[in-house]
Amino acid sequence: MTSYRLNRLFDPHSGRALDVAVDHGFFGEHSFLTGIENIGTAVATLVDANPDAIQLTIGQARHLQEIPGKQKPALVLRTDIANVYGVPLDEHLFSHHFPNAVEEAVRLDAVCVVANLMHLPGRPEIREQNVQSIMALKAEATRYNMPLMVEPLVMQDNTSNGAYMVDGDTAKIVSLVRQAVELGADLIKADPTSNLDDYHRVVEAASGLPLLVRGGGSVPDRQLLERTEAVLQQGASGIVYGRNIIQHRDPAGITRALMAMLHSHASVDEALALIAPAA
User: Fold this and answer.
1) Predicted TM-score (pTM) above 0.70
2) Helix runs in 50-144, H state only
3) Average pLDDT over residues 161-185
4) How far apart are CA 253 and CA 245, in angstroms?
5) Residue 187, pLDDT score
6) 20 to 30 A from 242, CA-CA: which of 7, 22, 39, 49?
7) Does the residue 131 lie in any domain?
8) What residues form DSSP beta bridges with 166?
9) Domain extent for 87
C-alpha cells in the first residue's frame, strides 16, 4: 500500500527513519517507566532532538500533537496492550487492541499504527490474539488508508528469570516476519538477530516492505551504534529504539548520534562524538 502519511515518517533524502518508542507505560511494568516518569518532559526533550517519529499511546499522544508548528516528529500510534513483560508474570496473560484504534489514529493525525505479533513458547493463545488483532486492524487501516506496522516478537522460554526475553534465532525471526507480511503489514518492526551477519535474511523476509529494527533493552553506546550500522548495511530502513534513548543519560545526544548515522552516513566514532561524555 502507498500512503501519503509515510512521507512524514521516512526522510526524503535517506529514505530511513528513527522512531523513538515512548509507549512503555502501556504494558503495566514499573521498571519500564524509568526515564519517562514525566511523559510531557520526556516528549519535549525528544521533540527538541527532532527524531523522525515518536511512538506513543492513545492516552499520551496529546503530549506530542498539542505542540504547535509543522516541524516536529511524526506520531506513530501503539494500538495494543499486553501484560507479557511483568516480573513475575501474571497467571493469566492477554494481548488486545483498541477496537477503534485506527479511527483514533486518524483523529490524532498519526502516520501509522503499530501492533504486536508475539511468539511466546507454550502460549499459542497470545499469538492467536495478536493475529486476530492484526486482521481487525488491517480491515480498518485499509478503509482509512492508514499504514499498519506489525511488530514480530520471538521470545525465549521464561523459566530462567521469570520474564520473557528476546530470542535472536534467525530462523524464528524470519518465519514470524514472513507471517506479518502475509497478514498484510505495510511496515515491519523486528528484533535484531543474535548473529547480525544474518540480518539480510530478515530484510528479505520482509518482501520489499520497509523494515525497522527494534532496540530492546539498554546496551552500551558503542554496542548500540555498531549494531545500528550493521543492520543498516544489510538493508534495514530504520530503527525503533525506546529504552536505549529515553533511559540514556543524554537522550538528545544519542538521538542526534543515531540520526547522523541514519541520514548522513556517519561512522560509529563520528556518532559517538555527538553524545555527551559520562560524568
Assistant:
1) yes
2) 62-65, 101-107, 124-144
3) 89
4) 9
5) 97
6) 7
7) yes
8) 155
9) 4-272
